[in-house]
Amino acid sequence: MAYKSLFIDLDDTLWDIHQNGKECLEEIYNDYGYEKYYPTFDAYYSVYMPNNHRLWALYRNGMIKKEELIVERFLVPMRVFGINDPVYAKELSNDFLERTTLKTRLIEGAVDLLEYLKPKYRMHILSNGFREVQYKKIENSGLRPYFDKIILSEDAGINKPHADMFTHALKSTNSRRDQVVMIGDSWEADIVGAYRSRIAQIWFNPGGEAMAREFEPTHTVRRLEEIKAIL
Predict the structure, then answer these.
(1) Each residue of 90-133: pLDDT tens digit?
(2) How many of the other CB atoms lie within 10 Å of CB of 225?
(3) Whole-angstrom distance between the N-terminal and C-terminal Cα of the chain?
(4) For the chain, which has fewer Cβ within 10 Å, the N-terminal or C-terminal residue?
């Protein structure tokens, strides 16, 4: 059966969350005077980022709520200095998230790939990102015209990799399970989630990450341009 629809992840598949987010965090570090706590931005980042990854994993799996994620990721690096104010952390998070909406760096080859795919497929964003920033990021980065629907986990009430998120996306887009491909960089959220939902997958794995896997994805690529040879 030929593919007709594509579910495509946003962050670190199309929109460069690593570089865009890092730029915003460095602005936060400088604007909030964090040099009095951490001697360099890299020192702060080395504490913030592993904790951020941990919290997102918990959030994906429904073990914490969004509010805990956005507060804890900014409080953890500061608690050692006696700063443990959730209101302060929420305000900081709001500032950080608003800054991210103004960043437009995309993954190399993203626009070229979308130009190639647009005439061939119905394309939909499928993201766990927060509602208040994802729409703005998509618009400001010039990505909106390529997509028919933007499907966010907050709107669905469930996160990738849960099967209900993929079922919601299928229903929302009037797509058949055997005519869809999920394209994403997250092994757990995108690839495992699609696999368990019986949806084909293209794993965007730019770092050549090796891991113990329960299955082989339908396709694996290291550069977005390689997807042209598949679709």
Answers:
(1) 999 999 999 999 999 999 999 999 999 999 999 999 999 999 99
(2) 14
(3) 13
(4) N
Model pLDDT for residues 49-78, shown as the tens digit of each residue: 999 999 999 999 899 999 999 999 999 999
Distance of CA 72 to the CA centre of its chain: 19
Q: What is the 3-state secondary structure (H, E, C) of the chain?
A: CCCCEEEECCECCCECHHHHHHHHHHHHHHHCCHHHCCCCHHHHHHHHHHHHHHHHHHHHCCCCCHHHHHHHHHHHHHHCCCCCCHHHHHHHHHHHHHHHCCCCCECCCHHHHHHHHCCCCEEEEEECCCHHHHHHHHHHCCCHHHCCEEEEHHHHCCCCCCHHHHHHHHHHHCCCHHHEEEEECCHHHHHHHHHHCCCEEEEECCCCCCCCCCCCCCEEECCHHHHHHCC
